[in-house]
From TrEMBL:
<feature type="signal peptide">
    <location>
        <begin position="1"/>
        <end position="24"/>
    </location>
</feature>
<dbReference type="Pfam" id="PF03663">
    <property type="entry name" value="Glyco_hydro_76"/>
</dbReference>
<dbReference type="InterPro" id="IPR053169">
    <property type="entry name" value="MUG_Protein"/>
</dbReference>
<dbReference type="InterPro" id="IPR005198">
    <property type="entry name" value="Glyco_hydro_76"/>
</dbReference>
<keyword id="KW-0732">Signal</keyword>
<protein>
    <recommendedName>
        <fullName>Mannan endo-1,6-alpha-mannosidase</fullName>
    </recommendedName>
</protein>
<dbReference type="GO" id="GO:0005975">
    <property type="term" value="P:carbohydrate metabolic process"/>
</dbReference>
<dbReference type="InterPro" id="IPR008928">
    <property type="entry name" value="6-hairpin_glycosidase_sf"/>
</dbReference>
Length: 400
């Protein structure tokens, strides 16, 4: 082999500059963040989390597996949070409750879809996957597979993008938007004339596919996860690295640029974390770290103290109340799967502890929590309690 020419050297130099640019994320912890650590011992962190779970259970309607005061998709997220609590603690204390209710909802709602939303179905499928991870219950795994099979009917395949036809839709779909293929996008709703494709449905599908790939080893899930990750990467990341909301699958019109919600970035971070474990492809780790670095410092949902302000609704429930829980859950997944990235882990732990200390210091009324994490404490609300569970659970293992 001849010695490298000047061109080669220049090329290698530019390449390494690019690579260092990609990896040189600012993972420092802002000094302005409020209380980014905790000294509470493990046993206390476990009881804080279990007590918060106990405080939402009186709202459970066992006939439907749902909770008074919150919606169907949010109820699915309560089950995910409870299953994750048991997984983090290493117990099956809440197993019968979680398994029975995930079975109930599956029996009542075909493919976990109650109202005609693919994201609803996937929230519950992810509850079933968390339950499977915690308890190894095979029925839960089969509910998740069934839901994945159903939602797969609403993905734009490469062939669909080429032909501008999606078998479940009655309009011409865009092959590309802004020069990038629409393959991998997942329609928000099954309805034949609904044109919306969004990051949350596509991110849920990416994440569900990646978990199923990890569990089963079946490459069809890996392929699906990669295609949907590529869709979000190509279409829905803004210049700051934050995940945007939606794109119209017919005419490429976009959601307003100020529609920035924590859960879109959170679900993408979770999906990429699992996908990186499955594929060992560093591009997904790099993109995950890039998204984390942007999202935990975004002024779209927090001030300089770092406490999330999104979904602070003291008098009534709304969808936004549940978003920040999804974000924190995704951050914990990134933490747990990157044991050797010390800077990333300190940043993630600090961010979760900021939220943890806000809940406990500013928003707590015994074991119940306001959805306004700056406080003040208030009487119990189901939605405030829902929003707290992932923080209280994540704090169990993110601290040592
Ligand atoms: C704490 O919760 C109880 C029960 O929900 C309620 O009666 C009380 O007013 C709450 N305290 C504050 C300070 O809001």
């Amino acid at each position: 082999m001849p010695p490298p020419t000047g061109g080669h050297i220049l090329f290698i130099h530019v390449l390494s500059l690019l690579l260092s640019f990609v990896s040189a994320q600012d993972l420092s912890v802002p000094t302005s963040w409020r209380k980014p650590s905790t000294s509470r011992p493990l046993s206390e962190r476990i009881s804080i989390s279990q007590d918060a779970i106990n405080s939402i259970l009186p709202q459970l309607d066992s006939a439907t597996a749902e909770f008074n005061g919150i919606g169907y998709w949010q109820a699915g997220n309560v089950w995910t949070a409870i299953a994750n609590h048991d997984y983090f603690v290493g117990t099956d204390k809440n197993k019968a409750l979680v398994v029975n209710n995930l079975n109930t909802a599956f029996k009542l709602n075909a493919h976990y879809d109650k109202y005609g939303y693919n994201d609803d179905a996937l929230w519950w499928a992810q509850g079933a996957l968390s339950g499977y991870r915690a308890y190894k219950d095979q029925n839960l795994l089969s509910h998740a597979v069934d839901t994945w099979n159903e939602v797969t009917n609403y993905v734009i395949t490469e062939a669909d993008a080429q032909s501008q036809k999606q078998p479940k839709k009655n309009f011409a779909i865009a092959s590309t938007c802004n020069g990038a293929t629409m393959a991998g996008g997942v329609f928000w709703r099954p309805t034949a004339d609904d044109q919306g494709i969004n990051s949350i449905t596509t991110g849920l599908y990416l994440s569900t596919s990646a978990f199923l790939a990890e569990i089963t080893g079946d490459p069809k899930y890996t392929k699906a996860a990669v295609l949907s990750a590529q869709w979000i990467k190509a279409h829905n990341i803004n210049a700051d690295g934050i995940i945007l909301d939606s794109v119209n699958g017919h005419d490429c019109t976009r959601s307003p640029s100020n529609w920035l919600f924590t859960y879109n970035s959170g679900k993408f971070i979770e999906g990429l974390s699992v996908l990186a474990s499955v594929t060992k492809d560093s591009q997904w780790i790099d993109l995950m770290v890039h998204t984390v670095a942007a999202a935990v410092k975004s002024s779209a949902w927090q001030g300089s103290d770092g406490i999330i302000t999104e979904g602070a609704s003291t008098t009534s429930n709304n969808d936004g109340v549940g978003f920040k829980a999804i974000f924190i859950r995704g951050l914990y997944e990134a933490f747990s799967r990157n044991p050797r990235n010390a800077n990333l882990r300190v940043l993630l732990r600090s961010y979760v502890d900021v939220q943890y200390n806000a809940l406990l210091d500013l928003a707590a009324n015994k074991s119940t929590y306001s959805s306004s994490w700056h406080g003040p404490p208030q009487a119990f609300t189901t939605w405030g309690q829902l929003a707290s569970l992932d923080v209280l659970g994540s704090a169990i293992r993110i601290n040592s």
